[in-house]
Every structure is written in C-alpha cells, then in structure tokens.
Amino acid sequence: MRFLLIDDEENLVNALRAVLREKQYVCDVALDGEEGLDLARAGIYDLLIVDVMLPRLSGFELVKTLREDGDKTPILLLTARAAEDDRVTGLDCGADDYLIKPFGVNELMARIRALTRRVGELRGTDQIAVGDYSLDLIQRRVAFRGDFLELTQREFQLMELFMRNAGRVLAKDTLFDRVWGFDNDVDSNVVEAYVHILRKKLDAQRKRLAGENVGTTIQTVRGMGYLFKGM
C-alpha cells in the first residue's frame, strides 16, 4: 500500500516514514499543505496522514478541498490539540479519524489497519468492471466480453491499477512504485516493457472479438503516462 504523509515536523516525519517502511508500506512525504494537496491530487494513495497545523495550507483546509474534489481516500488527521472542537472540525471537514500527538506506534498502526480495511470496502470485494472488461480479484483473472485473458502476476497488477483508474492518466513512476516498489534490482524502464506486452495482449483479444477498427486499450500520453480507456 502507498501512503502520503503531510507534516512539517521533520523529526516526526523521518520517524514515521521509517516505521511505515519497516511495515512494508510505501510512504511519500510533503512538508506543507500546498505541496501535500498537489501530491494528493496527482498520486494514487491508500491513505493520507495529515497534520492539522501545516504551513501554507492547514490540514483542515486540505481535507475539505480534497473532499470537495470528490476524493474519497481515507484520511487520518494528526494534531497536538486535544480540544473537542478541533476533533469535531476535523471530522466535519471530511477526515475519517483523528489521532492526538504524542501517540505510540501501536496506536498509529491500529488506526492505519482500521482505515485501510475500509479501502477494500470502498473499492468493492471481488469484481471490478469497466466497459466490456471485468476483473476477478479472487480468481485473479481478466475477461473481455466474457473471454478470459491469460496474464502474468505483474500484468494482472498493472491491469488492476488501470481498471481502478480508468479514464485517468497514470504516471510511469506511479505504476513502478505500486507494482515493483520494493524490488530494488528492477529498473523503472520495466514499466514500458510490461505496458507494451499488456497492451498487445489486450488489443489482440479485442481485435479478435470486436473487429478490426477497435483502437488501442492503453494509450500513451506523451510526457504524462498511460491512460486505460476500457472500451
């Protein structure tokens, strides 16, 4: 899973990032509210951990803006202020939970586990459907109009990311971090190779089942990344 930590206390940021990496989470960091908002809008995250007292844009404002954008990513607010009014304000802005500093690692991880369980609930349990494509998360297979396509584990992971974000451009770095994030022996150019292979498989299947002039399923957006159309 990939988290975004937004906090301007560098000592706390370094400590939390080390803990999260030890637990095998990928953790991006922003040190002020505006940078955090930009990263949250540009990336794909399973959880946002946001401090209330941020420079340039407060945690309350950041959360409210994301919710107004329609972003449903779970958000855990951090604050040194224990007043009930502050907790109510944070929750009313759209945060999912509220953790008061100082806190212990065990309590933090318990909150994270609870919130990330909701990610699966929000995304659905077993099936993802986009256009004529369906993806079975239990049997780990993909079908176009009921015709199943054989994919490797990495290809399936890419396909899942594309289908969860159909119509949205995914950056090459985002795909690499989500599929190969902890494999230090792999070059980031592997993304291009795997997307090429996956695209060929998808397009060949669609051409066979839907006819000659069907176009490509995964479009390369120059300078930005890849777009899954899911036609």
Automatic annotation (TrEMBL):
Modified residues (4-aspartylphosphate): 51
SMART domains listed in its UniProt record: REC, Trans_reg_C
Alphabetical list of Gene3D superfamilies matching this protein: 3.40.50.2300, 6.10.250.690, Winged helix-like DNA-binding domain superfamily/Winged helix DNA-binding domain
One biological process term in Gene Ontology: regulation of DNA-templated transcription
InterPro entries referenced in this protein's UniProt entry, alphabetically: CheY-like_superfamily, OmpR/PhoB-type_DNA-bd, Sig_transdc_resp-reg_C-effctor, Sig_transdc_resp-reg_receiver, WalR-like, WH-like_DNA-bd_sf
The entry's keywords: DNA-binding, Phosphoprotein, Transcription, Transcription regulation, Two-component regulatory system
GO molecular function ontology, one term from the record: transcription cis-regulatory region binding
Chain residues forming the annotated DNA-binding region: 125-230
GO cellular component: cytosol; protein-DNA complex
Domain Response regulatory: 2-116
Pfam family, one: Response_reg
Start and end residues of each OmpR/PhoB-type domain: 125-230
UniProt-recorded name of the protein: DNA-binding response regulator
Species of origin: Ferroacidibacillus organovorans
